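Anyone? Bumping this.
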Amino acid sequence: MEDARTILATHNLCRDFHGFRAVNAVDLAVEEGTVHALVGPNGAGKTTLFNLLTGFLPPTAGGIRFAGTDITRLPPERIARLGVARSFQVTSLFAQMAVREHVELALQARSREKEGRRFWRSERLMRRFEAPAMDVLAEVGLAGLATRPAGSLPYGQKRALELALALALEPRLLLLDEPTAGMGLEDVDRTVALIARIRSGRTVVMVEHNMTVVGTLADTVTVLQRGEVLVTGPYRQVRQDPRVVEAYLGADVA
Amino acid sequence: MTSFLQQLFNGLVSGSFYALLALGLAVIFGMLRVVNFAHGALYMLGAFGAVVLGDDAGLGFWWALLLVPAALAVAGMAMERLLVQRLTALDPLYNFLLTFGIALVCQDLLRMKYGSHSRPYDRAPFGGTVDLGLFDYPRYQVFVLAVSVVVCVAVWLLLTRTRIGTVVRASTERPELTRAFGIDTRRWVTPVFGFGVALAGLAGVLAAPMRAVNSDMGADLIITVFAVVVIGGLGSVFGSVVAGFAIGMIQALGNLYVPVLSQTSVYLLMAVVLLVRPAGLFGKEEHA
């Protein structure tokens, strides 16, 4: 299952909550350079799986490998530093902090230089992250809002800023938890175009409910049901799989 | 007019203690989501530390001002590592009970060893008065006010103008996002707790030359400080300091004009703030 092109692999991954098995024996192999979508009804274990992959939850059993390293029980910050960036399902930003400062903080956290780790140094040091921060903001179309406090942005732009933060970490693997959740049609289109643009040279794993978005972006789709992998394959193939039609797409397709 | 100003100054001096203690509570609550009920006892230990250093080691006030907060910071970090940390994943009520228990143990141990009478501390660094123009004021009290203001401003600058401050504030507001950036938020928890405890110790040492040093001094004071923290906004560093000085002045003026209300005014104010702005004057509601 795991070959040289696999960047992320889980083996028999399980997670229990008080006797309830939310993720059950999941074997996942994500190929480098692809967009891999996780779909499934609510409660299928998608977000739990994300939290396992990023170290926010320890697994009950099983293992996770990223780029040849066992990351099974590493804390979130270590996994992040290995090159895994994530967004959160519920918008997560610093309300009072300016848009550009968010990106600067992500950039300096990412920075391996000595100065980047000297915490007693003045905030002025952040100025050297100003230009690269503006580049990242331009990439997601937020350059004009750099000085606004993040809390004052409309919803669609908050999500765009979250994408910018993930990008600022220059990840090898980008995990997006429902990037279009709660968006109007226009914002969905904009986000799809954005993800299509930033995916080049990166691997993306995304949880997504919107099948149009999945069909447009995903190379591979894994359908989860009750914490287990129902089927994995290319979107067209998965879409026609009788088990999937029955379990999940049923109403849409029939 | 002079008595008004003089009373206002008295208020600023007692506000100095409220502000230092509320600041420590705010910093700890912000980072750990723990309300440290042992804070008053740690203040008391700070004052006793100064007395004991003086009586047993012959060390003067300046030594106490240096050594006691440092020693309490170490004790605070040990307390966080060995006890508080084990309970942070549970309901906040557990740490409420733990820190309250620590406060009672500290008080009773001190009472066992030194009795419940007040201990004299006569190593004030300077006596006499300063001429403030309209009235003379004890030099030491002016010094206390100056130290408190300088420390509060320094902490404010540390939190808002340095990278360590940015990281601490980020960890406070969005621990998960901060960790997703690759920043280890946990390595700041223990030092921040120790720092908050050191502030309580500092307030205790400053209190020794001008307040009665006994095992109950912290318990008496901390109730007002909790009211200060609620009024300023739980976890708001700025609010705690502002409310600390404001409450000190309100109490002092109450003493002068409406003596009946001087003790209850704080709690009345707290009740009003809770009704109108439940998150406190400078607190943030729990959403972004």
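Late reply, but here is one note on the structure posted above: The CA atoms of residues 107 and 128 of chain A lie 10 Å apart.
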